[in-house]
Design goal:
The protein has 179 residues and is α+β, with helices and mostly antiparallel strands. It contains 4 helices and 7 strands. A 5-stranded antiparallel β-sheet has the order 4-5-3-6-7, with helices on one face. Strands 1-2 form a two-stranded antiparallel ribbon. Helix 2 runs antiparallel to helix 4. The protein is elongated, with a radius of gyration of 19 Å. The two termini are 29 Å apart.
């Protein structure tokens, strides 16, 4: 059994709690957060990641000669589909009506990698960070799957939340001094 303590601190005039929202403080058991009292706002989240392919796989992807087909288009579609299914993959994640999911995949010749960036958007009562992160993760896994016959040393790296907007906690940008 876990004993949870709640710490509250102030930053920039805002009050924050370090209590985990998906854990019941009295019992230590998991719970789904009740969002029924929250206001609908426009919310966005952007995540990024990269797939280090190695030179041989990179060259084949760049020439669109991977045996399984068009890697970048397939990964983009997989990422969009995954964002739409996030609440089915992450146990305590709320289902959202996504307004849009935009994914870009860019080949980087200097390090033989693919950069992936996904932005999810909704007008809802909870954020879309998990949808953006899931989109990048599944797009990266799709790149790996389509290229694994060429190389087993492919690496999925640096999947992070870059930014979020909307909601009670406000905006966040990775690397800024907030939150």
């Amino acid at each position: 059994m876990f004993k949870l303590t709640k710490q509250v601190y102030r930053h920039g005039g805002r009050r924050f709690s370090s209590q985990l929202t998906h854990v019941d403080a009295s019992s230590g058991k998991i719970k789904m957060v009740d969002v029924s009292a929250k206001s609908e706002t426009i919310r966005t989240a952007t995540a990024s990641g990269r797939v280090a392919l190695g030179q041989s796989a990179f060259d084949l992807v760049a020439k669109n000669q991977i045996q399984k087909g068009d890697v970048l288009t397939t990964a983009k579609l997989a990422g969009i589909m995954a964002a739409k299914k996030t609440s089915e993959l992450i146990p305590l994640c709320h289902g959202l009506n996504l307004s849009s999911v935009d994914i870009s995949l860019e080949l980087n010749a200097d390090d033989a990698s693919v950069s992936i960036r996904a932005t999810a958007r909704t007008k809802d009562v909870t954020g879309v960070e998990m949808e953006a992160l899931t989109a990048v993760s599944v797009a990266a896994l799709t790149v790996y799957d389509m290229c694994k016959a060429v190389s087993k040393s492919i690496e999925i790296q640096d999947i992070v939340l870059e930014a979020k907007t909307g909601g009670k906690s406000g905006d966040y940008t990775r690397g800024s001094s907030q939150h």
